[in-house]
Amino acid sequence: MALASTLASCLSSKNTQYDIIRHPYTLSSMATAEAAHVPGDRLAKTLLLEDDRGYVAAVIPSSHHLHMAAICEQTGRNLVLAHEDEIREIFKDCDLGAIPPVAMAYGMQTYVDDSLMAQPDVYFEGGDHQELVHMSGEQFSKLMSDAGHGQFSRRMM
């Protein structure tokens, strides 16, 4: 599968420099990091959250857990994880579990954990479970310039 069309358009419109890393099919971000030989701290995973006002995306390293109280405090919202059916409806050009971090391109507010913004390079799902997008930390910062930033994840033990 090629990049999700929404992601490809976003990357093109922002003149983002990136390359594609192919890896064996995986179903979890930690398995993807291992299969692609990528540090978990540099692999972004996107979580879709919701409340009665709509959806929010939280982007954290795959080696971290989302700290719900912190993201709720930062957004001023009472967020919970969205259901799989809702994720499929919003990210129609992506496989379930392969959501790219540019949720702004899908019309929703996005927040990126500061720990990702400090990485020299970043990897993330391109819409399927066999390819990662890879770019420099500088390119990732430029790509995510419209996103909110904060500390709302904790490293897994």
Quick summary of this structure?
This protein is of the alpha/beta class. It has helices at 5-13, 29-36, 68-75, 84-90, 114-117, 137-143, and strands at residues 19-22, 43-51, 54-61, 64-66, 80-81, 109-113, 121-125, 131-136, 148-150, 153-155. The strands form two sheets. Strands 1, 2, 3, 5, 6, 7, 8 and 9 form an eight-stranded mixed beta sheet that branches. Strands 4-10 form a two-stranded antiparallel ribbon.
CATH architecture: Alpha-Beta Complex
Helix content: 25-40%
Number of helical runs?
6
Backbone structural class: alpha/beta
Question: Secondary-structure element sequence?
Answer: HEHEEEHEHEHEEHEE
- Identify the overall geometry: globular
Low-confidence stretches: none
The separation of the N and C termini measures 34 Å
- Give the percentage of residues in beta strands: 25-35%
Whole-number mean pLDDT: 94
Tell me the count of domains. 1
Radius of gyration computed on alpha carbons: 14 Å
CATH domain class: Alpha Beta
**CATH-level-4 superfamily name:** YbaK/aminoacyl-tRNA synthetase-associated domain
Q: Major beta sheet, specifics?
A: 8 strands, mixed
Specify the oligomeric state: single chain
Beta strands, count:
10
SSE topology sketch:
Layout: H1 5-13, E1 19-22, H2 29-36, E2 43-51, E3 54-61, E4 64-66, H3 68-75, E5 80-81, H4 84-90, E6 109-113, H5 114-117, E7 121-125, E8 131-136, H6 137-143, E9 148-150, E10 153-155
Parallel strand pairs: 2-7, 3-6, 6-9
Antiparallel strand pairs: 1-8, 2-3, 2-5, 4-10, 7-8
Description:
- Helices cover 27% and strands 31% of the residues.
- With 157 residues, the protein is an alpha/beta fold.
- Strands 1, 2, 3, 5, 6, 7, 8 and 9 form an 8-stranded mixed beta sheet that branches. The protein has a two-stranded antiparallel sheet with strand order 4-10.
- A hairpin with a 5-residue loop joins strand 7 and strand 8.
- The radius of gyration is 14 Å and the shape is globular.
